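User: Hi! I'm a student and our assignment asks us to look at how structure tokens line up with a sequence. Could you show me two examples?

Assistant: Happy to help. In each example below, the sequence comes first and the structure tokens follow. Example one:
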Amino acid sequence: MSAPLPLAGRGRRFVATLIDAALVPVVAILLMLVTGVLEHAQDWSESAMPFARMFGLGLASYVLLNLWLLLVRGQTLGKTIMGIMIVTAKTGAKAPLWRLFFRGLFFPTLYLIVLIPFIALIPVIDQVLIFRKDRRCIHDWACGTAVVRREAA
């Protein structure tokens, strides 16, 4: 890239996040229906295995809709719709796998709230930092990424 891309607007980032947040559970439920996790009620009373399968399928939907799409395209579906993408902050190049993995592993909001409820404010604080001049949240800063407007094709 010759010139740095303009930073994505706060509204675009917010809407993209809402779209992605709505899609992950939809895909997870579809995976659960296809694999039969939700069909066998007796299994729920006899073991914890259905919960483990549900967690695994939910995680699979998150990885598919976030990590995989970010690695391949630099965009989730929400970001694609809103015309923004994730790049490496210093170079503007597509973010490498290790940055995306770190970003996805440590900063999914639901993950933090479900597993560690008393630190549920971290995702809120993370998102509030978008109002800084560089529009980077904690997860952007920690991973060395920035969210920018996509170049017109």
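Example two works the same way, sequence first and then tokens:
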Amino acid sequence: MNNMQKVGGYAALVTGLQFVAILVIAFGVLGPQGVAGPDAPADKVLAVAAKSATPFLIDNLVTMLFSITLVLGALALRERLQAGAPNRMRIAVIAASVGSALFLANGVISFSGFPPIVAANDLAAYRILNAVTQGLINAAIFAYGWTALLWAWAGLSTKGLPTVLSYVLLLAGVVATLSFAIPIFGLLGVVINVVWAFWLGYVLLMQPATMAAPPKAKM
């Protein structure tokens, strides 16, 4: 097994934990207080955050960490699948890099901008911050969706990933690319991401790289 695949395997496992953390924060901490999601009332968000901004800041840190693990996963899969799908893997790394930059921008802006807004109880500033960060996260998820679609396509054509895992990645990609237009897909996507992340981590760490498809199948 090559080292990049091993790094990518651990990154995928961390990604799975990140998505579990998002679900716990959304449903176990913020949801019961009525402030989960971008459409939560601004005054209620600030009131809850004034008591404890920790869940919001942890969510921002998780987003920032995903910007790293996403790229590591893309690099690992490029090494595993590039012989049979070199162009798709190059584009997947580019899409992951674009998504990574957007996830990082979202996390950093939220992490640094949210506490002073909470301290000032500035509703107008919060609404502006929320509009900016929501635009960034929607764009980031869209870019990640294309990454997952390319992984799925390459995995199916090269047989470099288990078939069912490739279909899970395909579903994750479709849901992610449509989530900006269908908000409920955002929640569904998080659940699907938990599945593929842990499964991909296992594959990269425990299963040797397989042979790629013949040259005529390359793209």
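Here is something you could point out in your write-up. Residues 3-35+47-207 form one domain.
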